[in-house]
Amino acid sequence: MSQLAGDIGEPPERAGRALLKEPAVRETHSMPRLSYEFDIESCWKSIPAWRAVSAEEFSDHQWQLRNSVSSLSGLAKVLGSRLSEGALEEFKRGMQTAPMNMRLTPYLVSLIDWDHPESDPLRRQFIPMASQLLADHPMHQEDSLGEDEDRVAPFLTHRYHDKALFLPTTICPVYCSYCTRSRVVGGSTPVRDKATYGAKQTAWEETFAYIRSHPELEDIVISGGDASMLRPDQLEEIGLTLLGIPHVRRIRIATKGLAILPMQVTSDDGWVKALERVTDFGRKAFKEVCLHTHFGTTREMSQWTVEAMKRLVGIGIKVRNQSVLLRGVNDTFGSMYRLVKSLSWLTIQPYYVYTHDMVPGCEHLRTTIATTEELSKALLGTTAGFNLPRFVCDAPGGGGKREISSYEYYDAQKGISAWTAPRIKPGRVFYYYDPIDELPSEGQAFWRNVEANGAVLEDERSRIEARIRSLSPA
Question: What is the pLDDT of residue 28?
């Protein structure tokens, strides 16, 4: 039985919601206004370097990739007078400690509000401003989800009984500053050397052999990096090989491309036709092929998104969305409601909303478990159940995705939640820690004590685990 408790010594029957200062999301009977009229006006015309670019050029995925912005000097050149000296200086200092390099498509650059970059939710996801950064949590981890621990082949992580994660590339069309795989994705930075790699077809056989030899594997996720960076022949080889394995019933192709480069779907006929061939093969074999994408806000949606989805729906491809809950981006009821409803209108199924992983460089973007839990509750009843995303915490250390209210213990004052995963790693307890700056003064004082004496946290965890054992059925 899950418990929300404060003082470890407090008896279970007294543990309750009193710990929370106030609801993280206030209940309201008024619903945010919605608009499904997505803009296709010449947004890029406000960018000095692209004023002369035609709609035909801007709509071409190859032009987008060739003109991607990969440095602050490149960004300054493209924006000209649109980028203030103050913002540029903030970006320079922010990028000095960022876990990811810069890579932005012109489409994405054109959607950012450069008159107010400090509050823009798109900029916040991709370019850090030094004044908004916070020190990493003492318990952050570069491999927060323990993917390396569960690696069974050079490109394969096998954690869940019937599912595996295939990472054939670490290259992406854009680099998100909150990436859970920032240890390997996004190129080397001033604070981290990385051995990134593109797709290596000659090196995949060991991965395929492992999957063939494990008949319990029914579901394979193809991610990275980003699957949109696979060439059409590579995408087809992976898809047809996996679907040709008798016990593989489902594959999911993961890409943020639909959100930040919809032109790939509207103009890259080779890639889309490869996806269509894989999907047709799966359909004829009575197997499922899904495209999993990643919209974090409605600001990433435009008429290009509509046209891309019309093409995907037209060739019978199912699309699901996975979001990360980000402070200042989508952590209010209004922003999340608009995202969920807009995805549904686009025939994209809202699937997961993740509590932000405890990776470095992202403390300013993380939210509390209480906020995530309250948002999940607030969305109930606002739309059809199949269009409600599951809010989850991917338990640090390899516990896997846990429903947000399924913690065994949560102290909202100290920001400590404890989770078990009996079907994945029985007998272990996994901990997630809320961002310290979001805690009340008592909780912040606790973490100052932890930094002065690490044994304080060890004692706290020992008491938590004793409590969990006492509440577990014999």
Answer: 54
Residues 317/287, Cβ–Cβ less than 8 Å: no
How is residue 12 written in tokens? 């279970």
Indicate whether 208 and 252 sit together in one domain: yes
Per-residue tokens: 66: 């060739």
Q: What percent of the chain has pLDDT over 70?
A: 93
| Co-location of 174 and 79 in the same domain | no
Query: Mapping DSSP to helix (H, G, I), strand (E, B) and coil, where does residue 194 land?
Result: coil
302 with 373, same domain: the answer is: yes
User: In this structure, what are the phi and psi dihedrals at residue 66, rounded to the nearest 5 degrees?
Assistant: -65, -30
Residue with tokens 């470890």: 8
Q: 397: phi > 0 → left, psi -120 to 50 → alpha, else beta; which?
A: left
| Pairwise CA distance, residues 171 & 67, whole Å | 16
Final residue in a domain of this structure, among 351, 375, 407: 407
391 occurs within a structural domain? yes
Q: Which residue, of 407, 427, 458, is where some domain finishes? A: 407
Q: How confident is the model at residue 99 (pLDDT cuts 50, 70, 90)?
A: confident
Q: What is the mean pLDDT of residues 235-259?
A: 98
Is residue 273 in some structural domain?
yes
8-49 confidence digits (pLDDT tens):
333 333 233 333 344 555 555 577 878 777 766 678 999 999
Q: What is the CATH number of the domain that holds 214?
A: 3.20.20.70
Classify 84 as helix, strand or coil: coil
Q: Is the pLDDT at 364 greater than 50, yes or no?
A: yes
Distance in angstroms (rounded) separating the CA atoms of residues 373 and 364: 19
Cβ proximity of 344 and 332 under 8 Å:
no
* DSSP notation for 422-455: TTTSTT-EEEEE--GGGS-HHHHHHHHHHHH-TH
Q: Tell me which residue range forms the domain holding 101.
A: 43-131
Q: What domain count does the chain have?
A: 2
